[in-house]
Amino acid sequence: MTQFVRNAWYVAAWSSEIDDQLRRFTILGDHIVIFRKSDGTVAALEDRCPHRLLPLSKGKRIGDTVQCGYHGLTFDASTGMCTRVPGQTNLPKSAYVERYPTEERHGIVWIWMGEAAKADTSKIFDMPEFTAPGWAVHLGDALHLKSNYLNVAENLVDPAHISFVHPTTLGSSASENVPVHVSTEGEAIVAWRWIRDAPPVGFFKAVGDFPGNVDRWHYYYLYTPCTAVIDFGSIDVAENCAEEDRDRGMRIFALHFLTPVTETHTIDRWAHIRNSALEDDEAAARMDVMFRKAFAEDQEILEAVQEEELRPQKRRPLRIAIDKGPLVYRKRINDLLELERTEDIASDPSPAFVYHD
């Protein structure tokens, strides 16, 4: 059974998904009621009244409080504390619901699912292209996958599958035997490769304007626990583009924000940032068509894998060279889980213990 890393920021929703209505979301197996308060900021509370356990999302808002639809207990949106119990004046200490810190930026609502005191907003994923001139940001869909988030994340640091899963959209046979480079030293696990002097793939045939062969690239960045960035693009082969000059070509960042819902349900909210056709909504729409086709191909694979994982296994799993990134990712997740399972009180050791290393 997978455990979820809780001390981390996850995407709860696109900003457009949240209004002043009480709406239930499920994140890391927890039901949460999310809505906008009167000042426009986002509130997120445990979606369960502590009295008879009716979801608060079935109640109603009264200003910036939420009233349970069963017996009228009312909870403050900012603190989670009970402010009213109809028929009595005393408020039991246990009359509260969990409140989850949130942060909104770039049209994305982030939520902290762990210890509130550790919710550092500087740790929220960001990149300069969100606001830099010369780039256009486009938020896509919320793709629901019947798959464990670990499998989805591993797929997002794996350039090798592109040739076989996406032969008409993001890949082609030209890349089948091109080596994949992997680096696991930094904050992100990175896997990348260049395919030189090859026909443009289906994506760039649909949205680019390349008369002949291109040099193209894929750089996969996976940030623990659940954010992935795929930097991919193409440039006319005659340009002889160096790896550090990718901005000279048609360059796109495909962003994937994974929200684990349950053990076998993950939401992949995807977006893209591009350096071409900046004011062209039709170009964004054409890209959406190609992305949806490619991600549907991923979905078929990942959901089939999930089905097989739930069946008894007759032999040990096989690992091959391309699995270096996913293996390091799993280790990082396990390390974070171990930190959350234990409390370190050894940093200021008792004088009875003298360390010489």
From TrEMBL:
Domain Rieske: 9-111
Keyword Iron-sulfur: yes
Keyword annotations: 2Fe-2S, Iron, Iron-sulfur, Metal-binding, Oxidoreductase
InterPro entries to which the protein is assigned, alphabetical: Cholesterol_7-desaturase, Rieske_2Fe-2S, Rieske_2Fe-2S_sf, VanA_C_cat
Pfam short name (any one): Rieske
Top-level lineage group: Bacteria
Record-linked PANTHER family: 3-KETOSTEROID-9-ALPHA-MONOOXYGENASE, OXYGENASE COMPONENT, IRON-SULFUR DOMAIN CONTAINING PROTEIN
Protein name per the record: Rieske 2Fe-2S domain-containing protein
Lineage, uppermost ranks: Bacteria, Pseudomonadati, Pseudomonadota, Alphaproteobacteria, Rhodobacterales
